[in-house]
Amino acid sequence: MNERDIAKKITQHLNYGTSQMDRSVLSRLQTARQQALELHARPSHAFGLTLADASGGNHGHGEGRHFSSLFWWSLAALLAGLLIAVNWQAMNGEPVDDVDATLLAADLPVHAYLDSDFDAWLKQSSQD
Questions:
Q1: Which among 80, 73, 9 is positioned nearest to 1, based on CA atoms?
Q2: pLDDT of residue 82
Q3: Backbone φ and ψ of 49, nearest 5°
Q4: Beta bridge partners of 45
Q5: Helices (H) and strands (E) in the chain, counts
Q6: What's phi and psi for 45, nearest 5 deg?
């Protein structure tokens, strides 16, 4: 038995079952089916963005891309956090230019920073 035969038998059983139902039940099922199809036709929203379906259309709703206020508040909070972090880092850290100037103005020759005995020289100069 192939898939087409199985589908045909299932359809026959379902049709037989609906012929035995009361008309009020059938009308409620038809209403529920219509509601489900309408809900399926609406675009899905995730994080306030309208997601396009596989066909690329928006089913005639004309909404286009929609950004919710939650998205904008989240974006503003993220930007404010980044600005605060950058300002805090700039105020609390010593500027790189000052470090370079201090190193260049020091009495220590540049090759001493590259020397493997630098720690020994520091100990000796601190004792003087």
A1: 9
A2: 94
A3: -100, 140
A4: 50
A5: 6, 2
A6: -115, 135
Q: In 3D, which of 31, 52, 29 has the Cα closest to residue 42?
A: 52
Beta strands in 3-47 (DSSP E): 44-46
Lowest mean pLDDT among 16-25, 35-44, 105-114: 105-114
What residue segments make up the domains of the chain, in order of their start? 3-41, 69-127
Residue 92 backbone zone (phi > 0: left; psi -120 to 50: alpha; other: beta): alpha
Both structure tokens of 56: 């690329």
CA distance 23 to 19: 9
How far lies 18's CA from each of 7, 15, 29, 34, in Å?
A: 16, 5, 10, 17
Model confidence pLDDT, tens digit, residues 21-77 = 888 988 998 899 899 888 887 776 655 555 555 554 444 444 445 567 888 889 999
Integer Cα distance of 64 and 50 in angstroms:
7
Q: Please report where in the chains the tokens 């929609």 appear, as a residue.
A: 66
Comparison of pLDDT for 69 and 99, the residue scoring more? 69
